[in-house]
């Protein structure tokens, strides 16, 4: 059990570090958003999973009801991250494209063509 | 003891957040800075959950949940502001 907890922690922290690297190594906003958001969300799920496993271990060892509260609340925190993080990333990408920031190496922009064809701003 | 591992994990995450601040300061465009801020917020939530084990208090997790919600609202507001819809 302890080995599993440490494994979860290592995987989660590793992915968070990769997200930090992604924020520096990618060329423009959209690729940075892709790398940073995915890696930090995945890593945070794994570090929080380590806390849930810690709660399971302590619960089995001591039988204290406090650790059930810990597990449930950490699960709610994971759920909040899972809902809010992709939504925020989507909003940032939409706002960046609308405000005129374009992908650096792209040669074709289907979204701009689509919006021009429809005439004006589409939802 | 096992909580030492959690403390080291939180320390490394804090270091990552510090490194991300560089992108927050030197982002070429405004959306770059928003991306950095959003990532830092996610890291802070993960850090709070880890520190709940270190300090042995469930209240830290509740604070992390509320922080995640407020960070989401802030990100949405900044995104709407960049878009020019406000």
Secondary-structure-based class of chain A equals: mainly alpha
Please give the oligomerization state of what you see: heterodimer
The best one-word shape of chain B is: flat
Q: In total, how many domains does the architecture of chain A comprise?
A: 1
Pick out the low-confidence regions of chain A. none
How does this structure look, described?
- The complex is a heterodimer of chains A (123) and B (86).
- With 123 residues, chain A is mainly α.
- Chain A has one domain (2-118).
- Chain A is 81% helix and 0% strand.
- Chain A has helices spanning 2-25, 29-62, 66-98, 110-118.
- In chain A, helix 2 runs antiparallel to helix 3.
- The N and C termini of chain A lie far apart (49 Å).
- Chain B has 86 residues and is mainly alpha-helical.
- Chain B has one domain (2-83).
- Chain B is built from three helices and no strands.
- The N and C termini of chain B lie far apart (52 Å).
- Chains A and B meet through helix 1, helix 2 and helix 3 of A and helix 1, helix 2 and helix 3 of B.
Q: What's a quick, concise take on this entry?
A:
The complex is a heterodimer of chains A (about 120) and B (about 90). Helices cover about 80% and strands about 0% of the residues of chain A.
